[in-house]
Amino acid sequence: MTEASGFEAKTIHRLLEVDPKTGGFKRGDDNPLDCDLLVVDETSMVDVMLMQALMKAVPDKAALLIAGDIDQLPSVGPGQVLADVISSGAVPVVRLTEVFRQAAQSQIIVNAHRINHGVMPDLRKPEGESDFYFVEADNPETAVPLIIELVKTRIPRRFGLDPIRDVQVLCPMNRGGVGARSLNIELQAALNPAGERKVERFGWTFAPGDKVMQIENDYDKEVFNGDIGFVADVEPGEGELTASFDGRSVTYGFGELDALVPAYAASIHKSQGSEYPAVVIPVMTQHYAMLQRNLLYTGVTRGKRLVVLVGQKKAVAIAVRNVSGRRRWSKLQEWLHPGPSQLRPIGTAG
Known about the structure:
Elements: H1 2-5, H2 12-15, E1 37-40, H3 48-57, E2 63-66, H4 81-88, H5 101-104, H6 107-116, E3 132-136, H7 140-159, E4 167-171, H8 180-191, E5 199-201, E6 204-206, E7 211-214, E8 228-235, E9 240-245, E10 248-253, E11 260-262, E12 265-267, H9 268-271, E13 276-283, H10 293-300, E14 303-311, H11 313-321, H12 332-336
Parallel strand pairs: 1-2, 3-14, 4-12, 4-13, 13-14
Antiparallel strand pairs: 5-6, 7-8, 7-11, 8-9, 9-10
């Protein structure tokens, strides 16, 4: 957001000045934010409690603009705030529905729209260069070496991308042979085999050069759930690991490494709100429990320059058809719905 707008962007927790000890916020109706316009992006990820805390802190004089995509995965916490706000009719809504000519040249965007409308993406081999590919693999035994070859060799060679920094494997599940946990071990061994300078803690090995993800909010270190960094050094004598997050150095004691996991592969849930130059997504029938349209749509829309699906056409079809993960039971829409005299028009724009 900072790169796109030129303004400083913050997480909602940081904006509301969270207290790490209590989990409460210093900003609220008695200490409102100092702003005239607040823009909240990726609002589909915001749950009911966090939105309530944010609303309390927005001053009466300020305007609020919320942006997001209700077709992505809903928030981890309860509710479906963005969907309920939109469907309530309580606020003016603008929907961006048109794929313009420049975007229509991107098969990532075209296929994301197809998936979102319940239509199979185009899985045929493209003629010439493309930014969307499907690589068939009938079982996990063939999928895993294919994914490693794609990340380590084929994508870097053809697209000039760094295999560790630019290519992200996104999985529907953590478990299983083609899940994030197993693929992390395989990809770490292929891309950055550990030398003598390493530490083994909590079932993982960490060494200089490893891509890692923070998996819990740490307000003291100012690193947050889903942040990706790179191990700069491991000091066995000091019992410390240093990692770089967006150029900022963060030090962990070896006993704190339960907050880090390797991030060569990650779940699609963890990737929401992020984007990567290239993503590789295994889509296998063994992921049946998690094959849902909004999951596949969210994964595909993480890729900026390249998306590669690896797996079975049948599994892709299951995901495209399955909308069961969309429904959440909530009273928010009902409570927000204005009376007949309060109704305002809802706009649509391309």
